[in-house]
Amino acid sequence: MVEGYTQTCVRINLTTGEIKKETLSQDFCKQYIGGYGFVTKILWDECPKGADAFDPRNPFVMAIGPFPGTIVPTSSKYCVGAKSPLTRRIGFAISSGSCGAQMRRAGIDLIILTGKAPEPVFIFFDDDAINIIPCKDTLWGKDIWTVEEEIRNMYGDHRISVMGIGQAGENLAKLACITNDRARQAGRTGLGAVMGSKNVKAMAFRGTKSIKVAKPKEFMEKAKELIQLANGKDTLKYRDLGTPINVMKFNDLGVLPVKNFQTGYWDKADAISGETMDEKWVVKKTGCSQCPIACDHLCATKPDDPDYPNVVSSVDYESIYALGSVCLIDHFPAIIKMVEMCDKYGIDTMTGGTTLGFAIEAYEKGYITKEMLGDNPVYKNGLQWGDYKAVVQLIEDICFRSTPAGDLLADGSRDAAKKLGGDAWKFSCEIKGMGIPGYELKGLTTASIGFAVSLRGACHLRNGSYGYDMKKKFDRKKYDELDKRGQALAGQDAFMAIIDSLVVCKFTRGIYHRGLPEIAEVYEMVTGIPMTGEEIELAGHRIHDLAKCFNIRECQVEGVEPMSEDSLPWRNFHEPNLDGPTKGWYNDEKGFWEGIKQYYLARGWDERGYPKEETLKTRGLDFVIGKI
Amino acid sequence: MIMSMKANNTPKTEKNSSIDTSAIMHKILVVDPARCTGCEICESVCGMVHDDVFNPMNSRIHRVRIEPVINSSISCVSCYDPDCVKACPLSAITKNLETGILEVDQNKCDGCGACMRACSFGAITVHTKNKKAIMCDMCSSTIYGEPQCVEYCPKGAIFIEEIDPNVNEDRLETLRKILERGFPQPPEGEILN
Q1: A194-212 residue pLDDT tens
Q2: FRET pair for A136, CA 20 to 30 Å: which of A67, A109, A166, B7?
Q3: How many Cα atoms within 13 Å fall on the side-chain side of residue B178?
Q4: Helix A445-453 × helix A482-502 angle, to 10°
Q5: Is B192 in contact with A239 (Cβ distance < 8 A)?
Q6: Phi and psi at residue A573, to the nearest 5°
Q7: What is the ipTM of this complex?
Q8: A231 at interface of B, judged by CB pairs closer than 8 A
Q9: Residue B144 covered by a domain
Q10: How sure is the predictor about B189, in pLDDT bands with cuts at 50, 70 and 90?
């Protein structure tokens, strides 16, 4: 008897309205764990080769792991996936809040949406009842904060969890995210636009079912220990100043992305630092369901703020660097406002911010003209570095595609650069189309490899590569010890894939002091499915390699060499940092590519990044052989 | 009215040795909204220790979110003259005068929900499975005997308050006094929230 999992998969054909329930086998649950693993397997099996991301046949998948509904710290998480409109490769994103737990209580592990609803709808999973409800006149066109509130009011139940898209998703902005519980986003890879392309505004969950665990007594003792650890020194950073503590740390190291990644240091960084934020702007810290950490630093503008009074939003480091230092904006109330707009209208603050940085530079270099910005008086000086009023307006223009510039930028900097032509692509700072997280890669060699090989586009969460540079395990200026770096990253790939499949929060990755064997024990206590450290590690490698194979398959259809995508922006190789501790640093192209090669080999792939046949066999991916 | 307070993370207050008040005091749970993050762990734990399954629907402590900033949890406050007792058409609920805990006669209760409607604190619900009224029993019915939500709360936000059973006071007033008085601060350097 399996506990934890409900083993229920719901398939909805939106075109016909047909709803089917299937049973997931115990073997499938063990092999792919949940979350990211489930998403990857479904996309490999069911996403037609080379299909456009907005093709109705592109499945939109939502999956949880074995833990939601229990008190495993930070377990109320979900993963969504589809072929990404932003990267045209595997798209997946993870969010927290209350949705994961409510989905489990409603008795569902996996949801697969295909087709396209004939009119805008939202889907209500009310325990066993699943209703597809037209919402053209009620919810469509509204921001997601309002939608969440209205769906709860429709049923008079504040416990209902809602995940959905804002106007940006409706407008198929490739930057679009999915928002739930106001402040939590499945932000990356543009999956909000996939929901929009299917005419699905939101999915709501209400579950009243009980959740058993296989070994309740042992589990409760273990959970108590983990909850205490999750509130101990391992997570102190996230509870204290939160991730914004990085601003000054990174600035001192010269790796804070500044001015659209032109350099790694900013003399005004203090205005947007974690210390300043804590002192002046944080009003309360809140937590997701089942989270002992409570990292959500809610910041509020003052009631008498001349521009943006009484705005409350949840601000973290990744939003601060992207909307702040990348655009040279040091006015914190504007950052609070920008985060609020991104969350409400529904775009990823990270790729959103890097696209804004690109836009300002494109304006400076004459690619974007004043006419394209529209006739709003806020653009009287055009689009200048640090002009927060203009940038705030531009976010709205992007989400609503209301001006030529907004329309252009809504698809991210890579697509925009292509349309602008000339040398615009040289300062589009993304990898595979997705904006680079808050790490200036010219000052971080291991991270430059780790971000480049990330399967969903530039990402710091795929292999924790920056940690090796920051903690001085490797020399962050040189490309040396590349075989060791490759091995370290290859191991981290599996670990992160496990964390994302379980799905638990990366902030609790440090509380399992005995590593994978301990995680496997908790898995077994909850599910009753026997699991060892080696088995779960193998599952992590399996999931990561299958996602890689998905990308290779898409590359082959397009006639693109997969390795050519595991690269860095032009700027990283050719324009050294302008000032600060990493002044003059850049990524050495030869060393970088050697690093990429060593990483491939460490993963059991060949020099072009194709998993070798024996690797696929040992990882239980025989079904891929001959398909790529 | 409020005599003393015990918290899981604070040293016990010195007691006057000549008077032992613990025997006659009633205990209730009060949550510090400044520390509560709305994580719902108390609800999950409550369900588990009473029913061996996780289900916040059958929790006896209830997380309330006052969006977007303030969270708090609330459970039975052991009213002086409880409305639930008066509302029950079957006289199934009694207040244990020694402990202050509300007790439900499992043979009498038919799950009609009259108590639920009468409780001004939303502290009583009807169990979704066995259809009997449930409210906080300070874990007296469990193998633990002590409130487990207090044990598990990661922020140490749930406090056991002692109230004088002989004083007839509206519990809103009691809670107001407790919240105004405030709660002991966590030890220096320990960032709970």
Answers
A1: 999 999 999 999 999 999 9
A2: A109
A3: 25
A4: 50
A5: yes
A6: -90, -25
A7: 0.92
A8: yes
A9: yes
A10: low
